[in-house]
Design a protein that fits this description.
The structure is a homodimer.
Chain A lengths: L7 E5 L3 H13 L3 E5 L5 H6 L4 E5 L7 H11 L4 E6 L4 H10 L3 E4 L4 H13 L13 E3 L2 E4 L4 E4 L2 E2 L4 H12 L4 E3 H9 L9 H16 L3 E7 L3 E8 L36
Parallel strand pairs in A: 1-2, 1-3, 3-4, 4-5
Antiparallel strand pairs in A: 6-7, 7-8, 8-9, 10-12, 11-12
Chain A binds a DNA duplex through helix 6 and helix 8.
Chain lengths: ~270, ~270
DNA sequence: TTCAGCTGTGAAAATCCTGTGAACGCAGGG
DNA sequence: CCCTGCGTTCACAGGATTTTCACAGCTGAA
């Protein structure tokens, strides 16, 4: 129906028979496919620029849940489909809640698997294909993903791995408020433990470094009770280099009527 | 964790037993739900501003395919989940290719159905995230969910988390009267204790901030003994610039914005 | 008009959250 | 083996937010 872009799928499965049959079909359909027989680190999946992933739960072993969690957390735009032999409702629910997009029981028909992967990919965000987008510039800051470095006017910022990833994540979502959980999930790769303050600590480190090298600008804003938002703004302080402070340019999009709809949800028996 | 957006689900099913059980859960989860026992024209679904739809194939009869096709075609952003008793691979594939997002076999566990609907909504939301999602405009007010911020003509309203969520909820249901219990349930996430006045207090805070930043407009109206209704209306009051006479017509509102102010009070208390 | 029931207010009290500074472990390099 | 850089944890202080209260002001019905 909709041509969309070609599907770049990775299959992690040991069942060579199934994989062979599936591959034949996906190939015929023009998909780009990569077959793996065991799980690989999420980072490598990121590098593959996939848009869909099919995993057989059994190859994950005990690490299954944490692995799925990491993958779904770090690649929120990836369509993840899990297939498994026996399974319980609880397992399926757990996986789906974890971020998995679909769960198929085995045995399953290749055609249906493909249809489900398509359905999942159809909803995939056409992320700004910014694969090799130029360096990200914000305020006096310049972030080069390829170099794993950030620069301010006079030199590089010297950030540690975590600091850099955090900054990159925030800057990528410039203007948007990111919740702590989401940040943690994407940078650390797994769910934040209750009471973990790592994000806050790193935010402080970033602020310190940014403040020292680029005074007169404030980059990271706190949204109390929610999270943080990256948005370079010249502060009334020093250094009036570039007065450019776009006041939130309304995107566009009419969104159409935003009117009414259901309300009432229930009478809570109090 | 914090559902950026409540799920507005419509269930089309004749199996009252199943629907009853499901409703109990969705209600507890704070979803807005509408139950239908037979198919209704796609246009009416559009009017409901849903973001998820659960259909039992059997109620569609012969029209099934054409109905699903029309629905998926007219509401590309709607998450559609189909459930059915017996089914063949061919049927499932056909439905998925048609645009349906997920297919569940019956009997199925309500919890799994919910998890799948959530997964579908999550995906849908993700694909529309960012620039795609236009801000919600009402009167001089502009609400941006992704930024967790609300703006009036000259700048951002400094709202706290609860204030923002409350405002968003109200504005989302523009024109509709929301009962306190329902408001509390959705914003706070759990049932309101008897005698709790939190909602009232926050309504006051919102009114104060709105009034201060956008004089000449009244946004939140009280419905004695019921609840509150959000509806931007120019008051014959202060308003320095625009002589308040024209109806809701945001200055630089994007064209094509069809703002149907009419409120067809569909949802009746069961 | 009176009354009981709701809602609007202000402010105090109770909680929750974030910013910090510093101590701890760990792992690689010297 | 010691030193140094990094990522984690802790505990506390200062604020920002939420709740809770007591009262005054309204509303609708008898």
């Amino acid at each position: 129906m909709n041509p969309q872009q070609t599907i770049r799928l990775a299959v992690i499965d040991e069942d060579s028979g199934f994989v062979t049959v599936l591959s034949k079909r996906t190939e015929a359909a023009g998909w780009q496919q990569r077959v793996l027989t065991s799980a690989i680190p999420p980072d490598e999946l990121v590098a593959m620029k996939l848009n869909a992933l099919l995993i057989d739960l059994s190859v994950l072993g005990d690490e299954a849940w944490s692995y799925l969690e990491r993958v779904c957390g770090m690649l929120p735009d990836l369509g993840v489909v899990v297939c498994a032999g026996r399974s319980t409702v609880a397992q399926r629910v757990r996986a789906l809640r974890l971020g998995v997009d679909d769960w198929i029981g085995k045995p399953c028909h290749p055609e249906e698997v493909m249809a489900r992967i398509e359905a999942v990919s159809r909803r995939r965000r056409r992320s700004r294909a910014g694969v090799e987008t130029g360096p990200l510039v914000a305020g006096e800051l310049e972030i080069r993903a390829d170099q794993f470095q950030a620069f301010v006017g006079d030199g590089s910022l010297d950030l540690t791995r975590r600091e850099f990833e955090l900054l990159q994540l925030l800057a990528d979502a410039k203007g948007q408020v990111l919740e702590r959980e989401a940040i943690y999930q994407r940078v650390w790769g797994y769910a934040m433990a209750h009471g973990d303050r790592s994000v806050d600590v790193f935010i402080r480190k970033l602020r310190q470094k940014l403040e020292k090298r680029s005074p007169g600008w404030s980059y990271i804003h706190t949204h109390f009770g929610v999270g943080y938002r990256f948005d370079p703004e010249p502060t009334g302080g020093t250094e009036p280099a570039t007065p450019a402070a776009e006041p939130v340019a309304p995107a566009e999009a009419p969104t159409g009527a935003v009117d009414s709809q259901v309300v009432h949800s229930s009478f809570t028996p109090a």
